[in-house]
Structures are given as structure tokens and as C-alpha cells.
Amino acid sequence: MHLEIISAQKQHALAFAELILPAMEDLIYFYLGEENKTKALAFLQDQFLLEESLYSYAHSLVAFSESECVGALIAYDSDKHVKLQQKLQVYLQENQDFKDQLTPETEAGEFYLDALSVDPRFRGKKIGSELIEYAENLARERKHSHLGLLVDTENPKAKRLYERLDFKVVNNKNLGGHKYEHLQKKLF
Q1: Where is each N-acetyltransferase domain found (predicted)?
Q2: CA nearest to 42, candidates 32, 57, 27
Q3: How many CB atoms are closer than 10 A to CB 105?
């Protein structure tokens, strides 16, 4: 299977939202205050189209096989996280009546892999690994010493993938009442 990984473009909004929602649905439903897939997809598309958003096309990658979008990854410099998260907090307070405080997800100095998802029909074909490798190369180019990500404690399959790629658990996080492990991979 030939795979092409490219920087996401605005026209990828719907495919991106449909791919990324399963990887983030607990968190997105927490933001929205309800489990509503239609609203969640609309929220993700809106956020994707913004330049200054945690979930923006500006720091997302998409993987194509033939002409079909089969994978997506959001990745950015952890130094941007607090600013982007504050913008999300304001957006949620103004548009969703969100009362909670958002918990920072990243550690200083890491290139943060915010969300990764592969179309279920294409899992087991190393697409997730290739997206991570692509992000790892970006991180090296930008002189980051390590990658970071969160993995849901209820997703041991994903954790095994990350451990096979040399990620190690560094701490635990609680986001939206859900438990995650923070993993890092040293690059140099």
C-alpha cells in the first residue's frame, strides 16, 4: 500500500474530524457537555479551520492511500500549548457554557503529539507508526529533544504501539475526569 503523508489543508476538515473524533471523543464530549456526534464533528471542523487552535490544520498531518484519507495526526511545539489551550478555554466558555478549567497536557520542550487516529479499515498497516515517524522527523528538524503524547489508560493497544516505538511513561494526567499516561520518546 502506497501512503502519502502531507500537511493538512482546510479542505480536509470533514475527513479529519471523522478520523480524529474516535481518538478524542471522551474529551470532546466533556468540552461540549453532551455525547452528540453531530455537534462533536462540527466542533472539530470549526477548530480545524482556525489558524490558532489546538486542533488546527496548521499543525496537523493527514495520510492518504490512493485518494482516501486514512490517518490523521495533530502535532505541535509544546511551547504553543498553553496559548492555544487558553483560546480553547475562552471559546468553550463563550459557546458551550463550559465552566471547568482545562489541564495542560504537555511538558516543556517536547514536540507534542496531541491526537493520532487511523481509519479502522486500515489499522494494522503501520499507518500510525508512519505518522509518528513523520512527526519525529519534524521534531528533529525543529531541534526538539523529545516527543510527548498522552495515552488513555483504557487503551492498552495504543500504549503497546508507543512502547514499541520507544516511548516511556513519565507521569499521569487527568483530563476531563479521564485518566491518561504521559509518554515521551528521547530523540537525542
Answers
A1: 18-188
A2: 32
A3: 20
Taking the whole predicted model, whether its pTM rises above 0.90 is answered as yes
Superfamily designation of domain 4-186: Gcn5-related N-acetyltransferase (GNAT) (3.40.630.30)
pLDDT for the residue 78 = 95
pLDDT at 144: 95
Name the grid cell of 102: 482545562
Q: What is the Cα–Cα distance from 71 to 86, expressed in whole angstroms?
A: 27
Model pLDDT for residues 131-186, shown as the tens digit of each residue:
999 999 999 999 999 999 999 999 999 999 999 999 999 999 998 888 999 999 99
How many CB atoms neighbour CB 97 within 10 A?
A: 9
Neighbours of 38 (CB within 10 A): 7
* Dihedral over Cα of 177, 83, 45, 15: its sign: negative
Return the residue matching grid coordinates 457554557: 97
- The distance in angstroms from the start CA to the end CA of the chain is 31
Can you give the pLDDT at residue 97? 87
Average pLDDT estimate for 1-21: 96
For the chain, the domains span 4-186
CA distances from 169 to 12, 147, 185 (A): 32, 12, 9
DSSP designation for 101? P
